[in-house]
Design a protein that fits this description.
Length: 274
């Protein structure tokens, strides 16, 4: 029979192992059900989510220039049409692949992961149509907490655009995203600020008046202020380099940078080198 001391030590070890493996999910199943519905029409001209595609006009340069300014883009590639060649990029919550495709097209070896199987299927179907990106773009139907277990310190950049406002356990979400980054790598996120003006413009007006965002797409209570996201980044050794406000202009029908971060914002942080 085991002595009390041995049993106590064994129990302590078991608890430690269980704690290091146990992880809470970041998936909000209601959100995934909502996103699944867009699977069939993600890339159509009449897509209800096409505003995300037009966001590429500002978010792709934000990511590309952020990486160039950090000095991790090779000099040989900066002036080419594929400046991100040689860099490994993870797109978390890639949906049907709007951003992942654009990053692969400028050279990044890209992996997109998403909690929606229907959207990953749409993303896989769409990339087949483009010879240029077929080989450097891959997709996986998974959540970041599963993916990060086998991809620690792998990526030069982790991007997650318009996703954090749809996840549960945001602290874990950021932790697992940051874990996938190499030391010195960059994390980029875009989201909606938690302000009254964002609630009015980016939610009420966008969903009910302009009807350019699906009704019920966003919930004010799930939004996050930039300083909260910065704190979560810092807890994972990622230090903010840039925060920039942006918004959609319904007159020009384009996204544009603005001096205030009160509506939408993009954030870029860099993981400390060990
Ligand atoms: C608004 S869409 C953004 C899609 C893409 N990032 C873009 O901007 O084109 C949000 C995406 O996040 C995914 N998502 C939500 N929660 C997630 C989670 N916990 N893990 C992975 N993907 C998630 C949804 O399935 C959906 O595809």
């Amino acid at each position: 029979m085991l002595s009390l001391a041995v049993r106590h030590t064994a129990l302590k070890h078991l608890l430690k192992v269980t704690a290091s493996y146990s992880t809470t999910t970041t998936i909000d199943h209601e959100e995934i059900t909502k996103f699944n519905k867009h699977g069939k029409q993600w890339w159509n001209d009449s897509s209800e989510v096409k505003l995300l595609l037009s966001m590429n006009e500002i978010r792709v340069p934000f990511i590309r220039d952020g990486l160039i300014n950090c000095g991790i883009v090779s000099d040989d590639h900066i002036e080419t049409c594929k400046p991100l060649s040689g860099l490994k990029v993870l797109d978390v919550g890639c949906g049907g692949g709007f951003l992942a495709e654009a990053l692969a097209r400028i050279g990044a070896e890209t992996i997109g992961v998403d909690g929606s199987k229907d959207l990953i299927d749409a993303a896989i179907d769409h990339k087949q149509m483009d010879e240029e990106i077929k080989d450097n773009l891959h997709y996986e139907h998974t959540c970041i907490e599963e993916f990060s277990k086998s991809h620690e310190n792998v990526f030069d950049a982790v991007v997650s655009s318009e996703v954090i406002e749809h996840v549960v356990n945001k602290e874990d979400f950021v932790k697992h995203c940051a874990a996938c980054l190499k030391p010195g790598g960059s994390i980029f996120m875009t989201t909606i600020n938690k302000t009254t003006i964002a609630n009015v413009l980016a939610i009420f007006v966008a969903e009910n008046i302009l009807q350019i965002v699906p009704k019920g797409a966003h919930d004010y209570d799930k939004l996050m202020a930039p300083h909260e996201l910065q704190r979560m980044f810092e807890e994972n050794c990622c230090y903010t380099r840039r925060i920039h406000g942006f918004t959609y202009n319904p007159v020009t029908k384009r996204w544009c940078w603005i001096p205030s971060s009160d509506i939408n914002y993009a954030i870029h942080a860099v993981k400390a080198k060990e």
